[in-house]
Amino acid sequence: MIAIALSAVAPGFALLSYFYLRHELEAEPLGYVIRSFVAGAILVFPIMFVQYAFVEEGVLVGPFWKAFVATALLEEFFKWFMIYYTIYIHKVFDDYYDGILYAVACSLGFATLENFLYLWVYDSIEIAIWRAVLPVSGHALFAVVMGFCLGRAKHSTHERFWLFTALMAATLLHGMFDYILLVEPMNKVPAVVYIVVLWMVALLLVRTANRSNHRQYK
Fold this sequence. Notes:
By secondary structure, this protein is mainly α. It has eight helices and no strands.
């Protein structure tokens, strides 16, 4: 059981550490990063309750609706809402990369607790490996895109456009990922390829956000 627990939480903390260290200008207050992580974890239970209600009522159970609405839109909206009201409007959110860092922290808090509960039920190291590669990484990468847009919103005259784009971009990327898994549940290759492409996009956005910071504080 200890091995399963460590397997459940290790990917989330490893990814959070990676994105925390990629901030090139200054280290963000660790307390606020942890706060975002915990806020994301808190979201697991109300979201699970709503998703359970959908299943019980037979609502949004088709592959498309389940992937894009019952899962992606629901989860990404609550994460977006939590990030906006706990961090975005706070003065600590003051540069382009902050959006990425705090969005990743919130999403990984959600993904880590969700992963722990899932592995607690299935108790399998093999499943733990696949979940680290796919769902946990996926949540972090969707968050990079959301956070990049939030960082732009903070410094743009078109704030509402970027806030809306943050939510919709993360929802579409998340929905596509879940749809791939629902349509090809036994074939993980398409999902792995999708995650690899998202990693390339995420690294580009990380680099772009850091460059924007350097230009801002020149």
